[in-house]
Amino acid sequence: DVYLIRAAIGNQLEAARRPEWAEFKGGVMFELGCHVIDPIVRLLGKPTKVTPVLHKHGKFNDSLNDNTAAVLEFGNAMAIVNASNLQPNSGRYRAFEVHGTNGAVIVNPIEPPGVVVDLAKAAGPYKAGKQTMPMPPYKRYVDDFIELAAALRGEAKLRVTLEEDLLVQDVVLAASGMS
């Protein structure tokens, strides 16, 4: 049973781009946090409560909320998302962790993906203990465009329904303090 998801995603946004990101109250949560909120909602469904924490901690003359967090509450679990524009070398610290009563699966970094499974007892093909999982090569967006092209040609349906996508967008807006 999953009881916690922790996700961290950040960058060190160049000063010239900050005004563009500041156009939305959610700042970095709206721009980057959405990438990890999407899989959280797909895994756990609709949260019962979303609490955004939006701060500007960077020493810049703008209004960008550049250090943000959100707590998503579910029936028997919670998710904590952190998104920041202040993090040097951020790529290596982007992480997605799923914690359950039998252990954890940790993706760190997210790109290129590194995955560790750490289980109290064996489950399916996974043994008890900590193990690093090999991941196939990954190119961002390639599979998404292949799926979209097949759907446009009528060869396949999209894996994500409009209702699922709308739910994700509602949660992103709530986590960004924009709903």
**Shape type:** globular
Alpha carbon gap, first and last residue:
30 Å
- Output the structural class: alpha+beta
In this structure, how is the largest beta sheet organized? 8 strands, mixed
What letter string, H or E per element, gives the SSE order?
EHHEEEEEEEHH
Q: What is the β-strand count? A: 8
The strands making up the biggest β-sheet line up spatially as 2-3-4-1-5-6-7-8
Instruction: Report strand %.
Output: 25-35%
- What is the helix fraction of residues, given as a range? 25-40%
Describe this structure in words.
It is built from 4 helices and 8 strands, in the order E-H-H-E-E-E-E-E-E-E-H-H. Strand 3 and strand 4 form a beta hairpin. By secondary structure, it is an alpha+beta fold. An 8-stranded mixed beta sheet has the order 2-3-4-1-5-6-7-8, with helices on one face. The longest helix is centred in the N-terminal third of the chain and has 18 residues.
List the topology elements.
Elements: E1 2-10, H1 18-21, H2 27-44, E2 49-55, E3 67-73, E4 78-84, E5 95-100, E6 103-107, E7 115-119, E8 129-133, H3 142-152, H4 162-175
Parallel strand pairs: 1-4
Antiparallel strand pairs: 1-5, 2-3, 3-4, 5-6, 6-7, 7-8
